Amino acid sequence: MSSEALKNLNFDMGKVWKLAFNASWGSFVFGYNIGVFTSCQPSVSATLGWGGDKDTYVMIMAALMPLGAMFGALSSSVVARKFGRRKALMITDLITLLGTGIIVIPFTPLFAIGRFVTGFVAGMFACLVPLYINETAPLEVGGKVGGIVQFQVTLGIVVAYAIALGLPTGDYGSDPVNYLWMGMFAFQSIFALIQFFLYMTVYKKETPLWLIENKMYNEAFGSLKEVYTEEEASRILKRLEDANKRSVVEIGVDSTSRGDEEPNYTEILTCKRNLGKMIRLGCLINFFQQFSGINAILTFSTSIFGSIGGSTFMARVFTLIVGVVNMGSTFAVFPLIEKVGRKKLIVYGGIGMTLCLFLMGFFSGVLTSAGPAPSIIFIMLFIAFFEGSIGPICWIYCGEILPARAMGVCIFVNWFSAFIVILTFNLLVDAISMSGAFFLYAGLNMLGAIYFFFDMVETKGLTKEEIKKVLINR
Q1: Among the listed ranges 26-35, 242-251, 342-351, which one has the minimum average pLDDT value?
Q2: Which residues form the Major facilitator superfamily (MFS) profile domain (predicted)?
Q3: Whose CA, among 8, 84, 358, 377, lies 20 to 30 Å from 22?
């Protein structure tokens, strides 16, 4: 957006970014939980005495995080509807403190419970943050501001990888620095506290849409004035009131008597009230985001780089570089989301990820004589394509097309897919080799690109009401 256009805005762009940034601390915690266990697995194993069963415990503990996130995703819509988006985020902050307090106790059953609880938190944040930002950011900058979700996710991953460089690379049982892993897991609680404090003292207003849905019109007007000029706030309030009154009239002929009631879980799961297209897109964009193979690479990146070639410390360095590339790529996609559109970026990104994974498989299996460099380069390129496409767009798109309950269901699909990917990756490598796993994920990415080319609806420049009309008429 040009400087001249910025001068003519009828909303405070600085306030928009502040609201989004504070909400996105939840995304940071979400990302940190993805990365924190990756590089400290040997340290945790030594402290908890996993011994020869280390690989089994690592697989289980890695999978417990997305398992907890599945339930967090489903719970998020209930909490968000009952208490509001802001209070739901604050409740999630408190659960974060509980989870980190449990996980640092050096006892395997408590570590497992802590992994599940912090995963539950990640699932809650994955739904709540995009929902909050989508309901507070103006349409003109929704895609750009929404990109901060994925940026904070990737920043959390990078910070976790960077701290792990301080861990020992051997002699885990006697080196006192080994216990740094406890501090690593506790570190995320700082950001939950920051977010909770700011919502208590600075950002005290709920999102306008939730207030209108609960017929709190004066409060909704006050919330809108936090971002918009008074005149524009009045105009948007009337538009949102009108949209809320007819919000589900178009969603099936049986809904006219139901006022502004949101589709229930039975209607979502059976795709009634003309919800089929909406739910199909929401579920499949989450499915293909995870079955791109991204979390297999991020969760097991240290062991992947170790198997390709290199010492433990260098494997951690390469893992950190992956995180930096992951984060840096999100900057490039911010302006492209509104200029190019969601659909083109996802299709082109899917093709790019397919090529990278195919070449990773080729160089890690068929042509190993080329050394580790080509595989490492294509892993980095794969990350860049992911973060330039389905990585951030999945969260933005779901926030645009889905009501709260449906979003919880679709994010459940995301975390269930992550659970399957993480739980089966090592088994897959044992069965068909590392290169075979890369070839398999290459095929899934190509399948996703084809699907999105034919079925995805572009939402660039559309309001939530316009998107709903487009989707229910397909």
Answers
A1: 242-251
A2: 19-460
A3: 8
